[in-house]
Amino acid sequence: MSEILTKSTARNIFYGGSAFFFAIFLALTAHSYLYMVNKSTDSAGLTDSVERGKRVWERNACFDCHTIYGEGARFAPEVGDVFKRWNGETDPAGAKQMIKDWMKSQPSGTPGRRQMPHFDLSDQQLDDLADFLAWASRTNTQGWPPRKSK
Amino acid sequence: MRYESQNIAKIYWYGALLIFAVQVVFGLIGGTIYVLPNLFPTDLLPFNVVRMIHTNALVVWLLLGFFGAAYFLIPEEAEREIHSPFLAYVQFAIFFFGALAAVAGYLFHIYADQARSYLEQPLWVKLGIIVAALIFLFNISMTVLQGRKTAITNVLLLGLWGVAIFFLFSLYNPANLSVDKMFWWYVVHLWVEGVWELVMASILAFIMLKMTGVDREVIEKWLYVIVATTLFTGVLGTGHHYYWIGAPGYWQWIGSVFSALEVVPFFGMVVFTFAMVWKGRRDHPNKAALLWSLGCSVLAFFGAGVWGFLHTLSSVNFYTHGTQVTAAHGHLAFYGAYVCVNLAIMSYAFPLLKNRAPYNQVLNMLSFWLITSGVVFMTVTLTFAGVLQTHLERVNGIPYMDVQDQLGFFYLLRLGAGAVTVVGVLLFIYSILVPREQEAIAPTSLTTAPAE
User: Fold this and answer.
1) Using one digit for the tens of pLDDT, what is the confidence trace for B269-300?
2) Taking the model in full, what pTM does it have?
3) Chain A to chain B, count of Cβ pairs less than 8 Å apart?
4) Domain A46-110+117-139's class?
């Protein structure tokens, strides 16, 4: 190896190659950004309420138990598609109410079952959170998560 | 130890070890909640708080360990004292106070208004981290610029600058969830599968240089080759996090191909460390540091490399994404790559800093086997849990909680493995901090052993 590759060649390959791959990465994320804003997410439906709902999600560290789009802790169910699972596509008002009622009824106290804390959220915050989850369920996630048809 | 300012490393490592203990204790509490979910009242100690302490403490102590390693090895590499020891202590005070305040605050449910996983620190703590990082980068860059420049310091510096630059993305949190996630990975992935690997490789190279006596030219060439494969694969490998978050479909191809190749640098590090130890043939007295170094490359290869490859192809990840398979991989990868490299440099440096023989190395090596057994067993049980979960939930379509109820046995085994890990960690800390007169088992001299 000593004759084929000297230390300074190895160094130049490292710096040059890394810069090359990083440039490609930046270009692809720029394209992905435009794709997300224009195609895969409901940009028009990203209302103030949805944004406030996202902050409720963040302020209460929901992701440290739940996953959303599969990311977060794996202690509690995925919520990226909870709106769909609760039939929000056919009955949005009903699904929204279910989310709000669920939040209010925690913790269940059932022995041997994982407990969700009671988050003291106002009606407005609950509405916002439900709007955020409804919005998230509309993103094109390339068919994920895999679910059997009902 | 040849330079007075290498002593700065000590305080960083004491801080790191303290937070390390906090990290594993909260891991144990989290594992307990999986088994006994009603044990702690949710208004006092909910799982999300336990998890954020566990993960944040991990990241913070690893960073403290890296800072300590930099202060220890840069004077020897640059052949001069650290530019300003005073600034190094100021940096420690800011960083350590911020870390403790963040962790203590979590217990009282104080975290960022715009918290995200691993980035739950309140804004003022994030800004404190950035200030500390700037002081650090100024200090070590000045030291290196005025001293001898080596491949080890070049790569280490590039890695540490990258750590600070990518952390800036923690301040960007757009309302669009998909965009948020894409840039969140700029911090998380480009750290652990990018610039942190540069730090790891340069620390390993330094240890190999000191312990094996192999020529610097050889070691530094290896280092450049390894870190080149790291960034060539790891940067576009970020794509394996972009499969299902609303990004374009082409990431499934790019992410699969490049992240599958992320195993290459880890395999390179295994070959590198073993080849150097073989080639050097030096009988270095600090066996514990050698064990941690070789253990580091091997366990990183399995944890980050093999367990990463296990679920990185998009056709597999479609089913395993967001299951316990991810948790299994996360535990062994962090342990093998970043915990072990920190404990390796500490095991190497502490006897020099304290000016003693490599004391307590029997206990130290015992702690290696205890922690390694614990984490490997934990990883295996979580892998079984994850594979079952994938099949029952993702293939058969059984609801999440019903599946979790069937995984209790694995969570119980995981808790046991966690308890062994905690014992091992406490033993490691004891072996480093508490001096003893003699080794637990006295070594026999190699020269008196009969030749075969």
Assistant:
1) 999 999 999 999 888 999 999 999 999 999 99
2) 0.96
3) 207
4) mainly alpha
